[in-house]
Fold this sequence. Notes:
- It contains 10 helices and no strands.
- The protein is mainly alpha-helical.
- The longest helix is centred in the C-terminal third of the chain and has 31 residues, at 146-176.
- The chain is rod-shaped, with a radius of gyration of 25 Å.
Amino acid sequence: TARxxxxxxxxLAGALLLRESLGSGKPLTLDIAVLKxxxxxxxxxxxxxxxxxxxxxxxxxxxxxxxxFALPVAAVTPPKDAAAMTLTERLLESLAKLVTISDLExxxxxxxxxxxxxxxxxxxxxxxxxxxxFKTLPLADQQHMERWAKNLNARIETETxxxxxxxxxxxxxxxxxxxx
Length: 180
């Protein structure tokens, strides 16, 4: 006689649903509900709650968001001491205030030009590798991109949770089937 599907099957279904939502960026409301019904402790799912209605950024969305940060963070340079400047430097400083030369259409570098290691890791599906690359950026860039890094971190945590749930479901399914 066939048995009704147990909690292990529900856990596997929830993990697969979460993996699919992670790939598509769909909201996680249903995923969280299915996993809770499968007996997953609410504390393990707490990190998903902020993304219940919005979903977690996809790899492509994270790459696209990098475009917002493609221009380098401007370095603040202290004003020069006029007394320490030569006559020529003071003259050039004064002239610089009168004339500004700029492109008619300034072009921001593309994300893959400004952040090649980040884009390469994300394009390869390696969120953890992208975080490693992020941590090599100058501190000013890291601070400027803090929100983006939180999105990447949420993705990494969710990928880890999916892997853990899949392994747990596999183990439980083997136990339910009476496998050694």
